[in-house]
Amino acid sequence: MKHIIALAVKFVIVTIVLLVVLTWAFDVSFFNTLMISLALTALSYAIGDLLIFLNAGKPANQSSRNTIATFTDFVMALAVILLIGWLLTGEFASMVAPALVSALVLSAGEWFFHQYVDHSVVPWYNEYKSAKG
């Protein structure tokens, strides 16, 4: 249940950011923005938040894990927005600026979302003790 709530929160955040940046500022259609939001939410939660954030370092070193995962989320957001935006609009060059702005704003939000994941979704992870001590 915690993962469903986290996915919903992430989807709302991603959709709001992309609506403001892509639809309102760069005139990308609402449908295209929604499709990009769905794909980006699914990929970045699975890869950036669960796989990379939880495995990028020792559980106690949240800041290091957060930095690595946030950078990864920036690269992933940029790539996903560019690729899907290009496939949906047929224009690559006109998607570069919107993708870059969106990825920067989303990365700032990801820093805080990772803290939420760490404390509310997988709080047990910080209490992990390895067999080696």
UniProtKB/TrEMBL annotation:
Pfam families: DUF2512
Sequence intervals crossing the membrane: 7-26, 32-56, 68-89, 95-113
Keywords: Membrane, Transmembrane, Transmembrane helix
Extent of the signal sequence: none
Keyword Lipid biosynthesis applies: no
Keyword Membrane: yes
Name the record gives this protein: DUF2512 domain-containing protein
Originating organism: Planococcus plakortidis
